[in-house]
Amino acid sequence: MKSTIADIGENKRKLNIELLEDDFEKDLVAFVTEAAKTVELPGFRKGKVPPKHLRSKIGEEQLREDTLSRALPKYIQEAIEEEGLDAIAIIDVKILSQSPVTFEAEIEIRPEPELRGYESLKITVPPVLPTEEELKEIENNYLKSFGELSEVSRSAIKGDHLTIDLHSTFNGQEVEGMNVSDYVYELGGQSPIEEMEKELTGAKVGDILEFNASHPQEEGNMRVKVLVKKISENKLPELTDDLAKKISEFDTVDEMRQDLKVQVTASKRNSILQLTQERIVQELLKLISIPIPEAMMQNEVESIKSRLPEQQQNDPHIHEHATNTIKIDLAIRAVIRQENLELEEAELNEAVAQIEDQIRLITESNNQNNAKNKSQNSRQNHKQANKQTPTDLKPDISIISKNLLQQKAMEWLIEHAQITDENNIPVKAEDIKPPPKLEETEALEGAVEAKEATENSEAEEKIAPEEQSEKSQKPEVVESTEKI
């Protein structure tokens, strides 16, 4: 195959392709051989027509035309790959000659916008380290099942257990499962009615509350009536070493709290990492302002719809979602291109090996199910299991490479972003990489405290002399710095 390429406009290229006769002859012979297996001609049994006889019967000109029509997409794809084009659509194809076979193909390629301003995105995230209040709340959750309920006469607050009568109607009919007497509801816990939390906070015994609430299964609101009959406070026990043994795998309170801090910190790092990625995506969207090619938009909309149930096919947000998806893809590709990000062979091999292991495990699991079904003489289940066995699955190297490069680009963006928490304390990329070990948690905590100490020291230097004098005369208060 010989091919030349010409630039015919923004994001458009024209390929001029000439096939070598020997290559085309191979495809022609393969086409005739395959057709001979199914065609019926007088004097021959079905599938027994000699290819040479069929070739003579069809005629050389018609045969070349049929072969080219059948193999044309393959030839165009080969030329696209040979020229290194990132094609998104084939606009037009013109056959110029049958012998030798030459044709033109107009191709639309993916835009490659120049991205600016991505080198140091400014991102704000919540504090990485858990506060004492957060740790205490989680610790209290462990203790709830060991608490004692004690009736109180005050207004209801979070954590209280309210005994209520619940009555709900929808279009004049009682809602199944939403009408019950002496129902105990924990304020701050899970509720079958989303609006109940807000309505019951601050309620008192004897209050009758009426409000509208979303129906859990139907469109529209149901009418809810609640009678507050009793409010009980859950008095939590003191956490001791003996209790720690019952509610955890640890022998002492200190060990339990240390592990709790590690687990909560790891969880916060995970959530903050995800939040950082989401906010970087939002910032990247602001940097892409090029028009989206119609072919890309159409392909993405169809892709989104293929994953949606029928009743959501006309969702008005599909077009917006498709636009954002394309813009983010273009932005990430620009980062990869402009920063010359590449994959190491070892990285790709490791990822491929992991996916191959997953496929192997799935295959082994399905094979075990097949054997079990066969032993139970369940023919129908055996057939179904065979359909689900991914024996022919293989890792798609191109998709794996794309995903790994996108991951590299996101890591690069996080490394170079200016990330601060809500207290204006800088957050390093390694501070949000899970999972942390205990010593890493303590080192991170020490760095935050050092930063705060430096800021406090600088602030004191700026205090007016009279204020500094008054401050020096006040008695020094020593506070415990020990944390859970």
What's the arrangement of secondary structure elements?
Layout: E1 2-9, E2 12-18, H1 21-36, H2 51-58, H3 60-83, E3 87-98, E4 101-109, E5 122-125, H4 132-143, E6 148-151, E7 161-170, E8 173-174, E9 180-186, H5 196-200, E10 208-214, E11 221-235, H6 241-247, H7 253-285, H8 294-306, H9 318-338, H10 345-375, H11 379-388, H12 397-416, E12 418-421, H13 438-461, H14 465-473
Parallel strand pairs: 5-12
Antiparallel strand pairs: 1-2, 2-4, 3-4, 6-11, 7-8, 7-9, 7-11, 10-11
Helix pairs in contact: 1-2, 1-3, 8-9, 9-12, 10-11, 10-12
Architecture overview:
The chain is α+β, with helices and mostly antiparallel strands and 484 residues long. It folds into 3 domains: 108 residues, Alpha-Beta Plaits (2-Layer Sandwich); 165 residues, no CATH class; 88 residues, Roll (Chitinase A, domain 3), CATH 3.10.50. The chain has 14 helices and 12 strands. The strands form 3 sheets. Strands 6, 7, 8, 9, 10 and 11 form a 6-stranded antiparallel β-sheet that branches. A 4-stranded antiparallel β-sheet has the order 1-2-4-3, with helices on one face. Strand 3 and strand 4 form a beta hairpin. The longest helix is centred in the middle third of the chain and has 33 residues. It is elongated.
